């Protein structure tokens, strides 16, 4: 699923974002950001804390409005939340009073997709896709952190968005679960063919998951470099400790550190 010959599905053009704060006054979170994500790509964004990674993601999702510039998805301007754009947050944004199945069904209900039986069938399909067969009736309090995040992933993909945005989606789970979920994300991406844009604080995760790694500067955030990841798919556990990841990690870390992000 390379980007060659594909049409840019997400186009970020000259995006700048200012915030008004009580303590600092006007703060520029992002300045003149340009980014193109191709149809079917999986791209990672990394940078120091506070560089505007999540802000950029929220603007692509239509949850924040740029101060200047524009964002296009499938050639149309993003002017607010859109069913074609799904987002997965770091926190487990699922309802504690709804079962796993009911949580996945929720998005389908909001979009009035199909009958109740059809929604349940779709929800079970995506619970199966994330490896959660047989937990339909469990409440979130009966699930581990990794299972809750799988439910959130299933909930987003069940609504069949064209673009999936992930904001530190694996940051709240332990390291072993995180590696398992990384492989799940890659498997779902390959099965679904979705366009995925992922924000992470982990350089290794950015490399392992991404076809490209976008590196941002400290605030005001701007894109300072892009790295292509020369690893084939499907990716394997051996690649995590291989020379490609090690060399790229060293280069990316040096770039972030030199940019004042250490």
Characterise the protein shown here.
The strands form two sheets. Strands 6-7-8-3-9-10 form a six-stranded mixed beta sheet, sandwiched between helices. A four-stranded antiparallel beta sheet has the order 2-1-4-5, with helices on one face. The chain is globular, with a radius of gyration of 18 Å. The protein is 35% helix and 25% strand. With 262 residues, it is α/β, with parallel strands linked by helices.
Please provide a brief summary of the model:
The protein has eight helices and ten strands.
List its salient traits.
disordered N terminus; six-stranded mixed β-sheet; 25% strand; alpha/beta; 10 strands; 8 helices; globular
Please describe the biggest sheet, giving its number of strands, its sense, and whether it closes into a barrel. Answer: 6 strands, mixed
Strand line-up in the sheet with most strands: 6-7-8-3-9-10
Number of helices: 8
Percent in strands? 25-35%
Rg value: 18 Å
